[in-house]
Amino acid sequence: MDVWTTCKPFVTGSMAGCIATTFIQPIDMVKVRIQLGAAKGGSTSPVEIAKSMLRDEGPRSFYKGLSAGYLRQVLYTGTRLGLYDKFTGMAMVPGEPLPFWKSTICALGAGGIGAVIGNPADLTLIRMQSDNLLPVAERRGYRHVFHALNIIVKEESAAGLFKGYQATAARAMALNFGMLSFSTKAKEQLSLLGCAPGSASLVFGAAAVGGFFGAFFSLPFDFVKTQVQQMKPDPITQEMPYKGPVDCALKTFKAAPLRFYAGFPTYFMRTAPLSMITLIAQDVLKKMWKDMGV
User: Fold this and answer.
1) How confident is the model at residue 273 (pLDDT cuts 50, 70, 90)?
2) Which of 137, 160, 199, 243 could lock onto 247 through a cystine, CB 3.0 to 4.6 A?
């Protein structure tokens, strides 16, 4: 029972994340294509990109990289949600609401740690989603997430699995801050307005607030992360387009600052529902464990 008590928050987070990503994967595919298109001056219309994918690659293209998506949820979401529960449990004073500054620190810490642990899966997901945009001769051709991990280690060493981890961690900290800190605060405020604990209005309302702020704060970091993780050396000079996340951010800012928010409607349609489904699924699973007496 002690082992299950320790593992339960992480198992709950992993399951909630996998449930959410099953529904959101097609939108995530379009979001990644929009960001890559924006960086190269291409189309950022979600409708046009979705039509192009359906026409040129078929319906299955919307679920390309799903195996990496599931692994990412187990490693990343399971860790960040599990650690957030652990951290807030340690920070909470019995009988008092958790101050916003404490929940913020808990969210930032859990998000950063979870991102580093989940970076290998996140890296493979981005590469699998963007592979068909590369010239045929330059495509990586990963068959599934474990094939991708094996190839990356062979060609780029184990350190290659953590390419772009700084941008991934920054994005995760921003997402966790918006998603979890504001969701926790919304639950507190909705309770004061009379919403009963565990009620649909409380659960859905707090999830909606967390989903919006998670998307708003994390998109610029997500844009940089996508550019860094999918970049390849120039075929002639063998130089990378960016030296790292900071260089990518500076070059993007100089070229077009609003590019950081390219595809915000699609990103919001992906991130907000993902956050909402994850938070709702987490609450449902917690209630299920309680009803089961475990």
Assistant:
1) confident
2) 243
Q: What is the pLDDT of residue 8?
A: 93
d(CA 224, CA 205): 30
Neighbours of 36 (CB within 10 A): 21
Residues 6 or more apart whose CB falls under 8 angstroms from that of 34 comprise 44, 46, 49, 262, 263, 266, 267
Per-residue pLDDT tens digits for 21-60 = 888 888 888 877 887 777 666 667 888 888 888 898 888 8
Helices (H), 131-260: 145-156, 165-176, 182-192, 200-230, 245-255
Q: What is the pLDDT of residues 90-146, one digit of tens each?
A: 999 888 888 999 999 999 999 999 999 999 988 888 888 778 777 777 888 888 888
What is residue 241's DSSP assignment?
Answer: S
CA gap 50, 294 in Å, rounded: 43
Q: How far is residue 31's CA from residue 264's CA, in Å, rounded to a whole number?
A: 9
Dist. CA 30–CA 41, nearest whole Å: 16
Q: How far apart (Å, rounded) are the C-alpha atoms in residues 232 and 242?
A: 10
* CB of 29 closer than 8 Å to CB of 61: yes
**Among candidate residues 150, 128, 145, the one with its CA nearest the CA of residue 75:** 145
Q: Count of H helices and E strands in the chain?
A: 11, 0
Please tell me the distance from the alpha carbon of residue 40 to that of residue 92, in angstroms, as a whole number: 47
Of 51, 30, 18, 57, the C-alpha closest to 226 is 30
Task: Tell me how crowded residue 63 is: count the other CB atoms within 10 A of its CB.
Answer: 14
- Which domains does the chain show, CATH number per domain? 2-292 (1.50.40.10)
Spatial CB neighbours of 282, under 8 Å, sequence gap ≥ 6: 12, 13, 16, 81
Q: Quote the radius of gyration of the chain (alpha carbons, Å).
A: 19
